[in-house]
């Protein structure tokens, strides 16, 4: 896969795109059943993300375009790198994610969920941007069983054990504790 600047993106298939992810759809629209594969790697700056979590590492995109009688079906993947902090222990995270893309492009958009084909061109940028932004976790974890910090002393429970009393009842449940004596135990 080629890595190139945002001025001109060159696809593996050999044709050049003057603007990243804008595909000329004239041939695809003329002949239903026609396909085109695009494999590109473009700068994250081309997406104009208003999200500081996206890392300045090229975004890899591999899509298959297929012309149908109702429009052009686009399916493939996009991979990007994001950064954040663990919601429990505040450890810094940098991870690569891969997103499956599966969308329809139509002239006149019969389907309200489809993207529009404008001037016989398909702009893949909004579809890829949307897919990537929806895939970035809002509250990431460094690992599924991250213990986080002790709520009493603030110790990082992944690195150390604390001697804080953890059996103190939650005051929000105290009203239920009072009901224990009111109702008889139904155990056999």
Q: Topology of this protein?
A:
Elements lengths: L8 E2 L5 E2 L4 E3 L1 H5 L4 E8 L16 E10 L2 E15 L6 E15 L8 E2 L4 E3 L1 H11 L38 H5 L10
Parallel strand pairs: 7-8
Antiparallel strand pairs: 1-2, 3-9, 4-5, 5-6, 6-7
Structural notes for this entry:
- The chain contains 3 helices and 9 strands; from the N terminus they run E-E-E-H-E-E-E-E-E-E-H-H.
- The longest helix is centred in the C-terminal third of the chain and has 11 residues, at 125-135.
- The protein is mainly beta and 188 residues long.
- It has a domain at 9-135.
- The relative contact order is 0.14.
- A 5-stranded mixed β-sheet has the order 4-5-6-7-8. Strands 1-2 form a two-stranded antiparallel ribbon. Strands 3-9 form a two-stranded antiparallel ribbon.
Low-pLDDT windows of residues: 1-17
* Proportion of beta-strand residues: 25-35%
As a whole number of angstroms, the C-alpha radius of gyration is 26 Å
> What is the arithmetic mean of pLDDT?
83
Q: H/E order of the elements?
A: EEEHEEEEEEHH
Count of helices? 3
Structural class: mainly beta
InterPro entries: YceD
Pfam family, one: YceD
